[in-house]
Amino acid sequence: MDEQGAPQPEIIRRHSLAVRLTHWINVLCLALLLMSGLAIFNAHPLLYWGHTGHRGMPFLLGIGSKTDNGRAVGITRIADVDFDTTGVLGVSYDADGRALRRAFPPWLTLPSNAGLALARDWHFLLAWLFVLNGAVYLGFGLLSGHVRRNLLPGVDQLRVRHIAGVIWNHMRLRFPRGEADRRYNVLQKFAYLLVVFGLLPVMVLSGLTMSPAVTAAAPILFDLFGGRQSARTIHFVTANLLVLFVLVHILQVLLAGAFNRMRAMITGRYVIRPERTP
Amino acid sequence: MKRLSRRKLLTAGAATAGSALLTGCDDVASAPPFRAALDLGEMLSMRLQRLLLARQPLVREYAAELISPDFPPNGTEMPAGFAYFELMISQFARWRLTVDGLVDNPLSLSLDELKAMPARTQVTQHNCDEGWTAIGQWTGVPLAQLLRQAGLKQEARYIVFHCLDEMVRAPDRSGFYYESIDLFDAFHAQTILAYEMNGNALPVRHGAPLRLRVERHVGYKHAKFITRIEAVERLDRIGRGKGGFWEDRGYQWYGGI
């Protein structure tokens, strides 16, 4: 409040340097891990359950192509139901408009020709960067109190009434101002906790379960996921959930004020808009 | 005003980074520093996995009911050329396995002589680097036993498997499949030279008469149609120098992932 009593925007320090740095390294890692992962998937675009899975066996999800009147048609089969996904999945087009019969299109894979050797090189190098970056984030988050102070919901945020109110505000696209904007809202906290302590660890562990050397050292991973093919399927599904999270995350940033939030994640400074005066 | 220019800068920066990310990675990967970074990733993975495996645990072995009835062949299904055809129709009676290189007693063994040696049978999972898996039962001679019989020289560090399948026709015979492992894997209890699969003679499409099972590695390390085992100190003078047919074409030598 200034002398006249009119509410003024206030600038706070929103994100610590460690959070900002690890956030952007993570953006790079997840983007490239996703693209190289899709290239690896293209080498065998079928997902199974259990220990074994190969061509000729029943599968949960498969991306392929067929020829219909001389035209290449992309087919995505999920639990025996076929979807025509020509243009994106199964059949996509190169720069000259030629049909490519591959599961994920070149613009989504690293390398763009989906070469398996290079895709594996990228994936396993970035996995190292991702894990080390994640370890720095977790170490900082737990020791500095970032997780406890900023990610764990406050007691008041856990009341059903409060949660219902936050959901209602989300539905009306009303974003918090003033005091309420000094901390993450409760749905945001749930989402971050789920990603940091749920989805990302599942990605690492299910990924490790695909390594025959790692499972030789830790066969318990087979029991944790129900087999190597189950782990592969869980790895793929969890990657999709992460993509969904990122899409919602970006949408929220855009809706809630892209400039202020991007600045906060880059410079740390964030403007708290004053409460609306009644 | 200041805010606007900064916004422009951010947008321009993000756009540049984005397009570099999308289009640049293919080119970037072949640049020497990035190639070195990618190789660093392989080295880190191998070092860490070797630490985890220091006590040489066995990989999981499965119950016979879990054997895949329709195990897909990996790589060559039948070597081309008359030489292999001749061996095949004689049921490999004239096939011999040579063990040479840095050994004290080079060996030349017939299939029957191999079968007379103490054998190991294991039901294990095969993991293709493409992502598919299948379970098979393998019977064969532990590689460690052959190597002890041949007597490895001090300098020997790698075991190279020379194969009968020619992947690429080349006048200098450089197109034949080959693979290599180091002594850490060569002396693992489950590293065997298999001549039987699922209780029958090893089928041609799975590498008859003899293939490698090196269970902590992905499929392409499991050389098929083996004719010669060579102990060497270094790999750079064999093939194109990367330690295997696929390694010479960009695949990682370490196949533990």
Explained architecture:
The complex is a heterodimer of chains A (278) and B (257). With 278 residues, chain A is an alpha+beta fold. Chain A has 2 domains: 10-45 and 108-272, Fumarate Reductase Cytochrome B subunit (Up-down Bundle); 53-103, no CATH class. Helices cover 53% and strands 14% of the residues of chain A. Chain A contains 8 helices and 8 strands, in the order βαββββββαααααααβ. Chain A has helices at residues 17-42, 116-144, 146-151, 160-171, 186-208, 212-217, 220-225, 228-267; strands at 10-13, 46-47, 61-68, 71-78, 81-84, 90-93, 99-102, 269-272. A 4-stranded antiparallel beta sheet of chain A has the order 2-3-4-5. Chain A is globular and about 75 Å long. Chain A starts with 9 loop residues before the first strand and ends in a 6-residue tail after the last strand. The model of chain A has no long low-confidence stretch (mean pLDDT 95). Chain B is of the alpha+beta class and 257 residues long. Chain B has a single domain (60-249), classed as Oxidoreductase, molybdopterin-binding domain (Sulfite Oxidase, Chain A, domain 2, Alpha-Beta Complex). Chain B has 7 helices and 10 strands. Chain B has helices at 2-23, 25-28, 32-52, 82-89, 111-115, 143-150, 183-186, and strands at 96-101, 107-110, 120-127, 133-142, 158-166, 176-182, 192-197, 200-201, 211-213, 226-232. In chain B, the strands form 2 sheets. A 5-stranded mixed beta sheet of chain B has the order 2-1-10-5-6. In chain B, strands 3, 4, 7, 8 and 9 form a 5-stranded antiparallel beta sheet that branches. In chain B, a hairpin with a 2-residue loop joins strand 7 and strand 8. The longest helix of chain B has 22 residues, at 2-23. Chain B is globular and about 55 Å long. The model of chain B is unreliable at 9-19 (pLDDT under 50). At the A-B interface, helix 1, helix 2, helix 6 and helix 8 of A face helix 1, helix 3 and strand 4 of B.
